[in-house]
């Protein structure tokens, strides 16, 4: 009986090994579960609502530009100078009384000798000391071949046909438009004003149409009133993409300028 007890109470190495493995596995699983619960509480992932779709409306308004001011009157100094020059013109010599000569020469001379003995051609209305070939009624000190009413010493300039004239109304300029897209709504919605402020405003852009129909000299005339430079940049880049048919004046392409207003509204 005692031997039977000792036989069953003897330690089994395989049984001890299985118990050790089970202990290690259970401890590992318990520790992993604790670590997972701790990490999940730290992450604290919350569910958010999906973003809503926003719509943006852009309205363009055409305002006629004011007519150019009249040219300024000529300076008074030039008129005074012309009056002084006119006063300095000596009066014509009073013709001497013609006396019938006692003897009539065979040939009537058609040349008059001056005091120095030089021969000069008589010009009707001429002034003593004038230049041969001058214009009757000319002014002392004038330039030969000068324009009547021109400024003394002035330089003649020729106006280039491609030179830009006064700004034209936007409605007239848009009549020759070939490609004129509006500011992109998705870009405006992604700006600070489109995501947070959402207050409307107006942006004015000055531009010119070159002789080849492309926009040039694009400048910001009026900024977006709510201090968002990105909105100004989008409007300016939009005008740079516009294309027009060349404006013809006298059969020649001419550069014209205008100004456009963008009314920006956010939903």
TrEMBL record:
One of its GO terms (biological process) is transmembrane transport. Residues 99-113 have a biased composition (Basic and acidic residues). InterPro entries: TonB_C (IPR037682). Residues 200-263 form the TonB C-terminal domain. Residues 66-76 have a biased composition (Pro residues). Residues 80-96 have a biased composition (Acidic residues). Pfam families: TonB_C. The chain crosses the membrane at residues 20-40. Residues 62-128 are annotated as: Disordered. Keywords: Membrane, Transmembrane, Transmembrane helix. This is Energy transducer TonB. It comes from Nannocystis pusilla.
